[in-house]
C-alpha cells in the first residue's frame, strides 16, 4: 500500500515530497506490442509518471457490450507502467476530448433524441454509472492505496470549457468514491476565470492546462486555490492536425524553455502529448467551434511530440531531457534499440469491385419514409448509403440535403453529380428530371464526431431530410456501412472506376517491420491491412502516408483492401520507410 496526497505547496508519496514529471501516452493510440517500448522511453527521458485517458467508446462500443482486450487492455497498460516503477495518472470517462471521436462518448448515446450530455441528466448518468460499475472495479486493485501504480484520477475533463453544472460534477465524484476510488481526485481546466469557476469541485484539487505563459497561468490558479501544489495537467508541447491544414510544429527550444520556467517555479507537469500515436480506424475526432464550422482531425496523431507517431525520439525529446536533468539526477540516456523500418516498395492492386454491387453482401437494406441518422439505425462509424427515386418530368430545380453530416457523394442514375460537404455550403446541385424519372443515391461519410465545444451533439448521416426544390423526398432505402466486416465482398478484375470502389492487392513480407503506406495518386478513402482498419487518407493533406506497425503484418501474404471514393491515377501503392505527415 502507498499514499499520494498533498499538503501546502507539495505533493507527497508515502510522506516523501515528490514532483510529478508526467507524460501522456494513450494506450488506445498505440498497438499493445509497443506499449513497453514507449513507456521505457518515457522513463529514460526523466519522467516518473505516465498519464492516460480512458476512451469509453472503445470499451463499450455497443450498449452493455464491454471490451477490454487487445488495444483496449487498459489494465495491462497500467500494470506495465507499474512494473517499470512509474506512477500512473488516469483520466477516465465519461468525457476525454483528446481529439478522439465524440470526445470518448459512445455514439449510441445519441440514439435517444432527448439525451443531454455532460450534465445532471439522469438517463445520461445512468449510462455513466453502468459503465463505472464495470470500469472502476477493474482499476481498484491498481490504485496505490491497494499496492498499484495509480496515484490520481480525474473528474470529467476541462468541464469549465463546456458547462457549470456542479451537481453533475459532484455526482461523478461521489460515483467514483462509492466504487472504491480512494486516491487523489483532481480536475483540470484552462487558466481562465469562467473555466475555473465552472470546472472546480469543492474538496478536489484543481490543475490547469496551457502551452505557454506559466507564471500567468499559475497565478490565476492560485487566485482560486492558494494552498495547494501547482500543476500543469496538459502542457501542450505540440498540436494536432486537421485535414486541409499544414502540419503543426513547435520548436524544441521553445518547449524546453517553457518547461524550465515551470520547473523553476516548483510546479509539476504532465506533457500532452509525450507520444501521440495514431487514430486508427474511424476514431479521429473533429472540431466545431461554431454552428457552421467543422474540422475533422487526421489519422496521424503525431502531435509533434517527444516521440513521433512511430515511437522514435525527436529533437524535442532530448531538449526536454536536458532541462529535466537540471532538476533530477538522470544518468546516461539508455534507450531501447530503434524499431526496424522497411520500405517494401510498390504493390499493385490486382482486383476491384464497386460498392453498389456489394451493398447486399456487406449490409442489409432498411426502408423508411425519411433518411435516418446513423445513430437511429444503430451505426457508430463509417459510411451510410441512401437511395430513392424522383418521378418526372420536372424542370431544373435545386437538390438539398438538409443538415448533412458530413460529406456526401450524390449520384443520379449511377453517375456522380456532385460532392456536397457541410463545410462548403456554396456548392449547389441543380438538375432536371426526365420523363422516366431519376434514381438518386447518396453516400455519406462520417468524418468524425465533434469532440470539443458546444456542438458535440453531432449525429451523422442526413439529420433532417432531402428535398428537390420545396418537396421533401420519401421512400428511402438505406444501407449502413461501418465496414467492420468486408468478407462478403466479391472482387473482379481491374476496370475504370465509375463509383466508390474497393481494390485488393497483396503485400508479401519476409520479415515484418514497421513501414509507412504512401497513398500518392489516390484521392480519398480508407485502407485495411489483414482486415485491420489503418484509418483515412485524403489528398488534401497534410498527411500523405499511413503508419503500419509491424504487429499488423505477418510473414508471407498480407491482404491490402482500399476503399477509394473517387479514383486513382495509378492502381498501386508504395510502402516506404519514412513517414510524410506534412
UniProtKB/TrEMBL annotation:
Domain Beta-galactosidase 1-like first all-beta: 371-481
Pfam families: BetaGal_ABD_1, BetaGal_gal-bd, Glyco_hydro_35
Family assignment from sequence similarity: Belongs to the glycosyl hydrolase 35 family.
PROSITE patterns (alphabetical): GLYCOSYL_HYDROL_F35
Keywords: Glycosidase, Hydrolase
A biological process term (GO) from this entry: carbohydrate metabolic process
Residues annotated as signal peptide: none
Protein name: Beta-galactosidase
Organism whose genome encodes this protein: Paenibacillus anaericanus
Domain of life: Bacteria
Active-site residues, record numbering mapped to chain: 158 (proton donor), 234 (nucleophile)
Amino acid at each position: 500500500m502507498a499514499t499520494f496526497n498533498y499538503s501546502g505547496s507539495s505533493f507527497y508519496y508515502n510522506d516523501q515530497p515528490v514532483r510529478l514529471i508526467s507524460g501522456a501516452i494513450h494506450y488506445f493510440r498505440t498497438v499493445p506490442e509497443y506499449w513497453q517500448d514507449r513507456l521505457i522511453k518515457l522513463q529514460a527521458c526523466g519522467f516518473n509518471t505516465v498519464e492516460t485517458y480512458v476512451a469509453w467508446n472503445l470499451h463499450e462500443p455497443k450498449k452493455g457490450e464491454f471490451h477490454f482486450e487487445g488495444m483496449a487492455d487498459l489494465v495491462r497498460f497500467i500494470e506495465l507502467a507499474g512494473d517499470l516503477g512509474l506512477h500512473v495518472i488516469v483520466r477516465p470517462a465519461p468525457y476525454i476530448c483528446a481529439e478522439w471521436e465524440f470526445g470518448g462518448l459512445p455514439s449510441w448515446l445519441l440514439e435517444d433524441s432527448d439525451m443531454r450530455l455532460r450534465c445532471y441528466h439522469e438517463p445520461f448518468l445512468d449510462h455513466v454509472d453502468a459503465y463505472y460499475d464495470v470500469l472502476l472495479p477493474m482499476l481498484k486493485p491498481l490504485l496505490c492505496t491497494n499496492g498499484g501504480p495509480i496515484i490520481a484520477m480525474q473528474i470529467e475533463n476541462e468541464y469549465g470549457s463546456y458547462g457549470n453544472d456542479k451537481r453533475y460534477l459532484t455526482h461523478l465524484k461521489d460515483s467514483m468514491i462509492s466504487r472504491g476510488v480512494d486516491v487523489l481526485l483532481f480536475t483540470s481546466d484552462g487558466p481562465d476565470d469562467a473555466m475555473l469557476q465552472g470546472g472546480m469541485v469543492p474538496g478536489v484539487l484543481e490543475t490547469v492546462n496551457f502551452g505557454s505563459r506559466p507564471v500567468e497561468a499559475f497565478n490565476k490558479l492560485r487566485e482560486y486555490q492558494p494552498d495547494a501544489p501547482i500543476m500543469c495537467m496538459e502542457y501542450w508541447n505540440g498540436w494536432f492536425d486537421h485535414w486541409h491544414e499544414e502540419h503543426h510544429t513547435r520548436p524544441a527550444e521553445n518547449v524546453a524553455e517553457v518547461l524550465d520556467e515551470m520547473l523553476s517555479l516548483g510546479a509539476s507537469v504532465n506533457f500532452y502529448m509525450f507520444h501521440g500515436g495514431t487514430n486508427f480506424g474511424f476514431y479521429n475526432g473533429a472540431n466545431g467551434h461554431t454552428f457552421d464550422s467543422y474540422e475533422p482531425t487526421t489519422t496521424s496523431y503525431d502531435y509533434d511530440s517527444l516521440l513521433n507517431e512511430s515511437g522514435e525520439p525527436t529533437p524535442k525529446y532530448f531538449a526536454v531531457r536536458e532541462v529535466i536533468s537540471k532538476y533530477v539526477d538522470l544518468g546516461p540516456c539508455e534507450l531501447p534499440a530503434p524499431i526496424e523500418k522497411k520500405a517494401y516498395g510498390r504493390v499493385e492492386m490486382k482486383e476491384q469491385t464497386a460498392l453498389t454491387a456489394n451493398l447486399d453482401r456487406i449490409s442489409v437494406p432498411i426502408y423508411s419514409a425519411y433518411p435516418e441518422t446513423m445513430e437511429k439505425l444503430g451505426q457508430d462509424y463509417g459510411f451510410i448509403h441512401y437511395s430513392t427515386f424522383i418521378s418526372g418530368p420536372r424542370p431544373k430545380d435545386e437538390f438539398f440535403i438538409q443538415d448533412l453530416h458530413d460529406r456526401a457523394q450524390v449520384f443520379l442514375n449511377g453517375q456522380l453529380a456532385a460532392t456536397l460537404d457541410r463545410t462548403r455550403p456554396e456548392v449547389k446541385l441543380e438538375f432536371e428530371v426526365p420523363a422516366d424519372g431519376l434514381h438518386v443515391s447518396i453516400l455519406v461519410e462520417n468524418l468524425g464526431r465533434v469532440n470539443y465545444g458546444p456542438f458535440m451533439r453531432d449525429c451523422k448521416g442526413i439529420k433532417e431530410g432531402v428535398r428537390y426544390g420545396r418537396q421533401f423526398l420519401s421512400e428511402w432505402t438505406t444501407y449502413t456501412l461501418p465496414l467492420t466486416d468486408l468478407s462478403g465482398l466479391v472482387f473482379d478484375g481491374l476496370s475504370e472506376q465509375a463509383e466508390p470502389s474497393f481494390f485488393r492487392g497483396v503485400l508479401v513480407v519476409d520479415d515484418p517491420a514497421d513501414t509507412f503506406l504512401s497513398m500518392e495518386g489516390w484521392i480519398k478513402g480508407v485502407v485495411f491491412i489483414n482486415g485491420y482498419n489503418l484509418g483515412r487518407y485524403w489528398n488534401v493533406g497534410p498527411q500523405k502516408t499511413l503508419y503500419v506497425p509491424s504487429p499488423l503484418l505477418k510473414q508471407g501474404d498480407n491482404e491490402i483492401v482500399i476503399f477509394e471514393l473517387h479514383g486513382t491515377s495509378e492502381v498501386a501503392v508504395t510502402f516506404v520507410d519514412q513517414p510524410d505527415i506534412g
